[in-house]
Amino acid sequence: MPACPPLSLYCINLIPTETYYGATAHVELARPESAFGVVVSRDGLQRYQLVLDVAGLPDLPEPQEYVLWVMPLDLDPVIRLGSIGNGHFDMGEVAFNKFMLLVSLESERGNVERKGSLVLRGRSPSSRLEPHDMFQVSAFVDPGAAMEEGHHDHGSTAWPPPAMHPAITMMDAMMTLSPDTDPWLPEHSDAPLAMPRQVMRLADGDSITLHAHPVKKVINGRSFSMLGYNGQIPGPLLDVDRNTTITVTFRNDAPFASSIHWHGLRQDNAFDGVPGITQDPVLPGESFTYKVHFPDAGMYWYHPHHREEAQQDLGLYGNMIVRAPDYTYLAPASREEILVLDDFTIGPQGNVPYGKDAPNFILMGRFGNQLLVNGEVEVHLRATQGDTLRWFVTNVSNTRTWNLSLDGHAMKVLASDLSPFEIESWEESMAIAPAERYIADFYLEQAGTFAMVNRIQSLDHTTGVFFAEVDTVGWLTVEPSAFETPLIRTTKGDVTANIRPDMREEISTFSAYEHTEPDKEVDLLIRTENLPPLVDWILKVDQTWFPPVEWSGTMPMMNWSSTTNKVDWLIREPSTGRENMEIDWTFALGSVEKIRIHNRRDAQHAMQHPVHLHGQRFLVLSYNGRPTTNRVWKDTVLIPAGMTADLLVEFTNPGKWMMHCHIAEHLEAGMKLAFLVE
């Protein structure tokens, strides 16, 4: 039986005790079926489907049995997973940060407590991050560096530092790091105060102007120089019907050259908004006119595609909702809320600057320490008991993956980027990566006030300790209904009502591609040069284990100080050795091809990558070789660290397009390629 690959992130070798020396076993940590690219609990715990393979165990007389148990490293609770033997077993799902697996020989069947002798044992890959595995760190640790209020003032006027996370341990030597570029921040004392988003309901043939210019935004009582479209953060919501075409004049009075990319739209290549591929950048003071066509119903968004790590982060983003008037896309809901998720970085002296000539925060991307929904610290939503509340959610954060939930409610996930799902599935929370969109319904059976919460499990890389972060980002007030019995359209148990026969029929026509070899194959990895020795050493220590997703900015100094001068993020084609824009791909118009993407576990700093394809749509066929069973047309997919995803791309839109990581800093560090459809 093949053993797990060395230092695997998704496999555990079970080691036999001396009595059972001839036995071999390993457990695959498979991805449970989910609507989302990363699968976590409401509390942010990583969920795994345990798939066990065993050989060489002696046969047992009745009533003895071998039993697999799971437990956290503190051994409480101990959970029976089931009876096993030689062969292949699906042992169900677990959700722990770190855990241990034990196989025991029980004298009686059905024991709910482990009493028998130990047969096999193993620990989760994450347990390699125990502090005793990193004893060298103790020479560098300064526990006092984690300040009480979460900030650390280095006394630097040239580069004010990022906020230090209050729950992590920092090293004295880290405090000497600084980006190797000059800082930049917008400064516009006379800029108008940013307004809330406004809705622009548009008809076919309408013309509008989107004007990027400086604004002042008040966050928690402090004023910040930011940017907005038409003076709004988020920018105007463009509300259109499917197959509408509008004209948009973009006026750029932002301090950077810019453009507008119409994310997810399968429209004319000339108006995709990518400087260097479809247009020249729009310089400050200049304008550009886009013809924007909306062929697919759903939720989309627009943003710059030049120095977007600064411009987008400062407020240049907005949504487009494309409606199908005949309700073929989604059934109607009682109430809709369009939610834009973002974060913002605030240090002791204000907004943390951006690199002037070279972007920084390149290792992990710029994590903000203030979460925002629709540009606000908290949103307040209202509904009535018995309503079907529909959320249209977009994540515009530079790098943060959210895990959003509504207390007291599960959500029915209806659709993602470009289509409904085959099955409208129930989830406890929404794990949404940068640039993704999801649409979900909540059935409001009870009156009351319910919190909207982002719950994640963060990792202190120095000590190897996980800790929970819980941020309340809004409130839903559900008023009592005037009716004695609220009318709920469907329930979790009504499985038949959750199937979309139209989507199942459409997507089933592509099932034959599940078992074909990939047409293209790429690796995702990183290359660094001349990093400070301490940073290089820390990256080597970190390679013992990488979390599937980095949920929070718990490497603040080394991330903040890293720039594009020393770090390149790479898409590499293994068959040719070509990287990023050197890759030369051409696809025939109308073809359907499989692209296999390996997010390399052996990268110097492996982490998740939300991969976006412009102008086309794709299905995610599998993760780590296991087929998905509930598919949806996507334009952006989150690929966790160490995982391989197979994408089936439908090339229906001619022109030269881009594929890239949608962590804004990774894109600026070169993680992109261009492909031609003709």
Computed over alpha carbons, the radius of gyration is 25 Å
Provide the CATH superfamily of the domain at 191-329.
Answer: Cupredoxins -  blue copper proteins
- Identify the CATH architecture of the domain at 191-329: Sandwich
What's the story with the biggest beta sheet?
Answer: 8 strands, antiparallel
Total number of beta strands? 45
* CA distance, first residue to last residue: 46 Å
Beta-strand content estimate: 35-45%
Number of helices: 5
Helical percent range?
under 10%
CATH topology of the domain at 191-329: Immunoglobulin-like
Structural class: mainly beta
Strand arrangement, major sheet = 5-4-7-8-1-2-3-6
What is the CATH class designation of the domain at 191-329? Mainly Beta
- What characteristic shape results from the CA principal axes? globular
Arithmetic mean pLDDT: 92
Uncertain segments:
140-157
Can you describe this structure?
The chain is mainly beta. Among the domains are: 11-129, Sandwich (Immunoglobulin-like), CATH 2.60.40; 141-184, no CATH class; 191-329, Immunoglobulin-like; 511-529 and 566-677, Cupredoxins -  blue copper proteins (Immunoglobulin-like), CATH 2.60.40. It is 5% helix and 42% strand. The protein has five helices and 45 strands. It has an eight-stranded antiparallel β-sheet, with no helix packed on it. The protein has a six-stranded mixed β-sheet with strand order 25-21-27-32-29-30. 47% of the residues are buried. Residues 140-157 have low confidence and may be disordered.
